[in-house]
What we know:
Blueprint: E1 6-9, H1 13-34, E2 38-42, H2 49-56, E3 65-69, E4 71-73, H3 83-90, E5 100-101, H4 111-123, E6 129-134, H5 152-155, E7 164-167, E8 176-179, H6 181-184, E9 189-195, H7 197-207, H8 215-222, E10 226-231
Parallel strand pairs: 1-10, 2-3, 2-6, 3-5, 6-9, 9-10
Antiparallel strand pairs: 4-8, 7-8
Amino acid sequence: MATQFKLLEFPDRAAASEAAAGLVADSIRAGLDECEHCSIVVSGGSTPGPCFDALSGMPLAWSRVTVIPSDERWVPPDHPDSNERLIRSRLLVNKASAGRFLPLYREGVDTVNAVPEIDQDLAALDAPLRCALLGMGEDGHFASLFPDFDGLERGLNPDGEASSMMVRTAGSPHVRISLSLSFLLQAEAVLLLMFGDAKRRVLKAAAAGNANYPVTRLIRHGNRHLTVAWAP
Length: 232
């Protein structure tokens, strides 16, 4: 496999999740050593839950940390499909309960007006982005930058001005909002946590330059900061 990024292989998912939590915690500590506040991006979905559980128990200065979802379905935070719901119930608990949260979904704001409001909030953060903990689908998407998204090129532009964008795809019953690649590349460290042989094959193809996978752009432009944690 190409070596544009650091690949960490673990015997099982529990070990990978624990290690990922430790790497995120290290990034937070480094950030808070340099600045009064820092921010992290975290993904939703099924993969990061155990990592969140481990991270939530780590003794960090959580009141100085802002947590941002990498993407969100445009549903209220009490909806079963909400990433905010997952993050609040699995990460922002225990020692991490003092952490700040910057939501992407905005109650009472329509999708037409949401992106400018969210981009303004992201730009106003006084907390440098230290780490982005991302997942990857078997179609090579990360955040909500799916292969069939008609704005994908804009979302994957490493020099793009947009920090977030609305995403509509045939495969999702919900409109989504996603952070852009250009925003995610601001992170000092990008960590891709992924499980299973199918995703390992996608990673290998993307590392070889397969343009069909959005994650190929993340590898190409984020390699200096990118670590992949994988388990079967």
